[in-house]
Design brief:
This protein is α+β, with helices and mostly antiparallel strands. The chain is 30% helix and 23% strand. Helix 2 packs parallel to helix 6. Bound molecules: adenosine-5'-diphosphate and magnesium ion.
Length: 621
């Protein structure tokens, strides 16, 4: 770039052996003889090449400029865009601003105020540190920087295609405004590859959204073609920011994730399984406040949904991971959009565990869609988070399913200890179920609870309970099974036989003892004992039938797929009349499983209607 003082390296041609190439000849210099094939590029060319890495499109310029403003301590950043950023981008902030000297240095390559040496790179807290963004952008655009520190004077610098046009005094309040016009006007090859103004604009909105999610303490505005489109005042809460960005309905789709694993914190929002797939999917990750892309982390979060979602459907997630700076390297990507972890496995497991825990809470149960009383003033306040039904105070008994309250004045809902687990772990608290449970249409169980009315789908709930039990049996390697007095013979189709071969070992693990009987027949000697109404042979046949020709969806491992199928076939059905004791037992069992709120296909098993909601519907509030 023209503003930089050149610093050509001196090369001694005499000491050079025949096979060496000159280290420091430049294209502009006289050293470009026939023997010279490697040359140091003039800085303007180097800037343009680097520009390709740092700014691939208008959105990346926007991102770099916003990050500079954040690094300068801005509390307000205004972003204006013309034609998707292809015509013009302007980012103004109220940050520290720059002195005249710093302003000149800022547009030089590797000029940065943020680090001084390699050691500063470990745990670097600023967004920038490479000192590449401004020179890169200025080398491929008509660039203007207007900046002023606390004490005047301010400075205006104009650069076109990397060549300094003007540097003069200017008047401005403290802060910095960078205007970038005609991006890539002097690099036709790049300009050609830019997409339409509309898709560039979308990319800019994404970039601004990422920053908005990360830095909720900063007031951000975004305008396109002179029209103000987004105004994001500062807020402490991620949920509130999402409500302003995407509307309060979107914010309602999420449950809170909040977990600590040693030095690692995982916070954020995860979409309720019952809402997944019904609106645009959005995923955002922040590592130590920095928006990053990381497929591995997303996969880990999605793994937590396993068995609550049908294959191929992906949840929306906004997750913030905080960890000590020396556990993460942010300097692995020119645009700093990727990070490297010292121990990726631990990070991913922590994410999975955090999301899993969030999904296991009662708050993830589907709520009745929010009904708003007609013409009242627009409710711009962030939506209330549903209060958890139980405190998750002491250890193992986390609040999963709101159970009917005991009418006694005893203030603990949990009375009986779980006998089977008592020896090995914290006692699992067990609810005393004394309230009435009503079966509706032989399909749903209804009961009241301190905080509202709860509806449970009996099949989905039972399926979930059985799934949990079978999975445990799998992990423990033993399922209670019963030897049949008279072994039963089954005739299978060839595809059912194939399915049997595929899953035989797993079927044995869950308690089926099966022997080949020649031809298409098998003999079953033992069957699992699941519940009183369980018809083992019918379940086996139906399970095999539904596993035929089906290798199982990729997200589920094979045995999970088998177990899910079996649980579905073995569960009580809609239409089964249940006795009061059976309903009690089912709800009690359900209160002990994880993901109680969803069946294995991701449908809701539990729907809650809070008194508050009910009162609102009846106009009592
Ligand atoms: P980096 O951000 O990697 O340091 P940049 O090229 O983006 O490199 O910016 C170079 C330097 O210019 C920064 O280190 C900072 O000192 C200064 N600077 C850039 N933008 C601003 C701004 N908006 N406010 C104050 N200083 C800025
Ligand atoms: Mg920067």
């Amino acid at each position: 770039m023209a503003v930089r003082a050149g610093c050509p390296r001196k090369v001694s041609y005499h000491s050079r052996s025949a096979t060496e190439v000159p280290l420091g000849s430049t294209l502009a210099g006289t050293g470009a003889n026939a023997a010279t094939r490697i040359a140091v590029l003039p800085s303007a060319v180097a800037d343009q090449i680097a520009a390709g890495e740092v700014v691939e499109r208008p959105a990346s310029a926007v991102k770099e400029l916003i990050e500079n403003s954040l690094d300068a301590g801005a509390t307000r950043i205004d972003i204006e865009v013309e034609e998707g950023g292809l015509a013009a981008i302007r980012v103004s902030d109220d940050g520290t601003g720059m002195s005249p000297e710093d302003a000149r240095l800022a547009i030089e390559r590797h000029a940065t105020s943020k680090i001084r040496g390699v050691s500063d790179l470990v745990g670097v807290a600023t967004f920038g540190f490479r000192g590449e963004a401004l020179p890169s952008i200025a080398s491929v655009s008509r660039f203007e920087l207007v900046t002023a520190p606390n004490v005047p004077p301010g400075t205006r610098i104009r650069v076109s295609g990397g060549a300094l046009d003007a540097a003069e005094e200017a008047v401005r309040q403290r802060g910095t405004t960078v205007t970038v016009r005609d991006l890539f006007y002097n690099v036709p090859a790049r300009r050609k590859f830019l997409r339409s103004a509309r898709s560039e604009w979308r990319a800019i909105v994404d970039a601004v959204t990422n920053v908005a999610l990360a830095r909720r303490d900063v007031h951000l505005t975004l305008a396109h073609q002179g029209r103000a489109l987004v105004d994001l005042p500062p807020t402490a809460r991620l949920r509130a920011r999402i409500a302003t960005l995407w509307g309060s309905r979107s914010a309602d789709r999420f449950i809170d994730v909040s977990d600590i694993h040693g030095p690692l914190t995982v916070m954020g929002l995860a979409e309720r399984p019952s809402d997944v797939g019904t609106a645009t999917r959005r995923a955002a990750l922040l590592v130590n406040g920095r928006p990053v892309r990381d497929a591995g982390m997303i996969r880990a979060a999605e793994a937590a949904y396993r068995s609550t979602l049908p294959a191929g459907v992906r949840p929306s997630l906004i997750l913030e991971v905080t960890l000590p700076g020396d556990m993460v390297d942010v300097n692995v990507h020119p645009a700093k959009a990727e990070v490297r972890f010292r121990d990726r496995w631990t990070v991913e497991r922590a994410i999975e565990a955090a999301v899993r825990r969030a999904l296991g809470t009662s708050d993830s149960a589907a709520v009745f869609t929010h009904w708003r009383p007609a013409p009242r003033a627009i409710d711009s306040a962030p939506p209330n988070e549903a209060a958890p039904y139980f405190d998750e105070g002491n250890g193992a008994g986390s609040a999963i399913l709101p159970l009917p309250a005991a009418p006694s004045d005893d203030d603990t809902l949990f009375a009986i200890e779980d006998e089977s687990d008592a020896a090995t772990q914290q006692p699992v608290e067990r609810a005393t179920l004394t309230a009435d449970i009503i079966q509706l249409r032989r399909t749903y169980l209804l009961y009241e609870h301190d905080d509202g009315v709860v509806l449970v789908d009996q099949h989905s709930a039972h399926e979930r309970v059985l799934y949990d039990r079978l999975m445990h049996a799998f992990e423990a390697g033993k399922m209670p099974s019963q030897r049949l007095l008279f072994p039963e013979t089954l005739h299978l189709s060839s595809s059912e036989l194939e399915a049997l071969d595929e899953h035989r070992a797993d079927l044995e693990k869950v308690g089926f003892e099966i022997e080949d009987f020649g031809g298409q027949s098998i003999v079953v000697h033992s069957v699992p004992v699941l519940h009183a109404r369980f018809d083992a042979m019918r379940c086996l046949r139906e399970t095999l039938a539904s596993l035929t020709g089906d290798r199982g969806p990729a997200v589920h491992s094979r045995h999970e797929h088998l177990v899910a199928t079996m649980a579905c076939k073995a569960a009580i059905k809609a239409g089964d009349a249940l006795q009061s004791s059976e309903m009690q037992a089912l709800l009690r069992d359900l209160s002990h499983v994880s993901f109680a709120a969803h069946d294995v296909h991701g449908r809701s098993a539990v729907v809650r209607l809070s008194w508050m909601e009910l009162e609102r519907r009846f106009g009592r509030r």
